[in-house]
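Table 4 source record.
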Amino acid sequence: MPMRLLLFCFVLLVAVSGCNSISTAKEKQQDEGIKVLIVEFGSRTPIPDMKVTVRDMETNEDVTTATGDIEGEAIVTDLQEGHQYLFVPSSIYTDDSEQEKSVGKVVTIQEDMGYVVLETYFEREEQQLDVPIIMQNPELPHGCEITALTAALNYYGLNLSKTDMAKNYLPKQEIVDKGNKRIGPDPAKAYAGDPFNKLTGTYVFAPVIEKVAKKIAKDKNVSLKVENVSGQSAEEIISLVQEGVPVVVWVTLDLSKPTFKEGWWIKGTNRKLDMYRNLHAVVLTGHMDDKVIVMDPLHGYVSHDETSFFKSYKKLGSQAVAIWK
């Protein structure tokens, strides 16, 4: 059997409206199908013996698969115009468990769309850390931070549960109405609301995730170094990953400008906090040329343009937590 191809493809990330939802648009089926060309990154050489799995981003269900020909071309059908889909390439020699770890490309289907080009890398182990995929939904619609941390810790073999982490380790405080004010915690000290609740969940910042990780390491009696590396440069963060260190990083969902809505007053202070509408947390697992690879608790493995990723990182206050052994 040929050496299994462990793949990376680069993602054109499209905007989403919230941490656990993707907007839908008008539905019109692409009856003639869409051509998918699978090529080697850099050289753009077509790669034969490839399979494409297409997943509906709204339902998170696989909707179709197609196998490429000797020219690296496959045709996928039964896709709806206006819908977003995750295109995931894999070798026909790759089993399903490895296929799930491939980096996908998020595509919005448009009228008269021609080719979708998937650029791939070989030898996955040499390109990024094998952080396990852990999806926050459906249990934790607003639990991206604790889910990302769970994945980063499980990279070291801890076999933790995201729900146990959220219930028993993540410090939480409610947001309550007092008079004409909403009062809640400082996100740098506790999670505001309930990550299990789509209506009342919000977010938490790096100092809390650092403390949770240290407590886990102590309780499980494992030797892990945990450090809040917030404020470090893109080069420093990338250097950590290249040394084999997974890093939980705060960015926005679409890597665009942060948006806000009415927030709350920090309990015991006279400081009011505006609430992020599009805050997200991912695990940075790899870097290739001008791309970064992340384990995203909403989408699995995806890649981003390095400049856009770290621009978003800075706009979210340059927050990051590194964990190494």
